Amino acid sequence: MSEARLHTPLGGAGFKGYVSFTEVAPTGMIALRGDLANATVAEAVEAATGQGMPAARRIEGGLDGGAAWASPDELLLFVPQAEAAERTAALAEALATQHALVADVSDMRAAFTLKGAHLRDMLAKLTPADLSPETLPSGEFRRTHLGQIAAAFWFEAEETAHLICFRSVADYAFDLLKEASEPGGEVGYFSI
Amino acid sequence: MLKFTCPACRIEACESELVNGGEAHLTRSGPGDSDEMFERYLFMRKNPKGVHFERWRHAMGCGKWFIAARHTATLEVFGTYPAQAHEPPADVIAAIKSRYPAWEGFK
Fold first, then answer.
1. Do A63 and A78 meet the contact criterion of CB atoms below 8 Å apart?
2. Distance from CA of B4 to the nearest CA of A (A)
3. Using CB atoms and an 8 Å cut-off, which of residues 56-85 of chain B contact chain A?
4. What pLDDT tens digit does each residue of chain A (192 aa) get?
5. Nearest residue, CB atoms, B9 vs list A57, A130, A145
6. Distance between CA atoms of residues A176 and A126, nearest Å
7. CATH of A2-25+108-180, one of 1.10.287.110, 3.40.50.1980, 3.30.420.110, 3.30.1360.120
8. Cross-strand partners of A164
9. Cβ–Cβ of B12/A150 closer than 8 Å?
């Protein structure tokens, strides 16, 4: 436990407001760049995460095993942290003959899980992304910015979302989320 | 607020997610070209009050470059297309011409 705490930038900090959030336990993340239409790449992704190739802007699976579409030639893969190094090596091996790049980026980011009925309203205070359920349904992986920092988030369900940002700005992200989630700050635009 | 639809990820991105990369469709000059051509490539820009083509990067998003056609005074957006294009696609030209019949072309 104490060892796991050492690995996340905020030590698993959380906040309970009208939206509650906590920093999640260390998660293995692998950046993959290559031709996403290639069958070998799709097979390697499935072997690493247990998930199929995500469609544009989508995420298959979640933090415990997932594949998120980051750009037309880039995926962010989520794997159990203990297996990140091993799976990165396996992926690199599987894609050795491809024009592809695989990197273990597990220590690069901070991740939060957010829960609450007013989640869309809270995030809409911080980002220019369109948070309407039609534009951003569950499973849509949205890269955008949160205040002044780059971040990405996706809704796992209507009242649960996950958010990732760079580790170096985890404090800033935490403070932003905390400020926006203070009780009494409900907006009631997307949820009443 | 200026909003462009990124042709790479189809997200309608607002200006704060994007970074401007200056005028698009520049003719590149290098070794072997005259000083005048090199000067034109490096320094001379159209800066029009009217229809303009610009490079933009979806920096807080998919990270891809694209080209946008917009009007610099009214902020109308006529279309966006991939940065690899050597000239504007027909639908963007048609959108500009239907709005500004007197527009003299992108050259």
1. yes
2. 13
3. 60-64
4. 455 445 789 999 999 999 999 999 999 999 999 999 999 999 999 999 999 999 999 999 999 999 999 999 999 999 999 999 999 999 999 999 999 999 999 999 999 999 999 999 999 999 999 999 999 999 999 999 999 999 999 999 999 999 999 999 999 999 999 999 999 999 999 976
5. A57
6. 8
7. 3.30.1360.120
8. A111, A152
9. no
**CATH 3.30.70.1520 domain span(s) along chain A:** 27-104
Burial class for A19, CB neighbours closer than 10 Å (0-12, 13-18, 19+) = buried
Q: What is the ipTM of this complex?
A: 0.89
Which of 2.60.40.10, 3.30.70.1520, 3.10.20.600, 3.20.20.140 would CATH assign to domain A27-104? 3.30.70.1520
Minimum distance, in Å, between the CA of residue B83 and any CA atom of chain A? 14
Radius of gyration of chain B (CA): 14
Q: Does A150 touch chain B (CB under 8 A)?
A: yes
Who among A56, A130, A150 is closest to B12 (CB)? Answer: A130
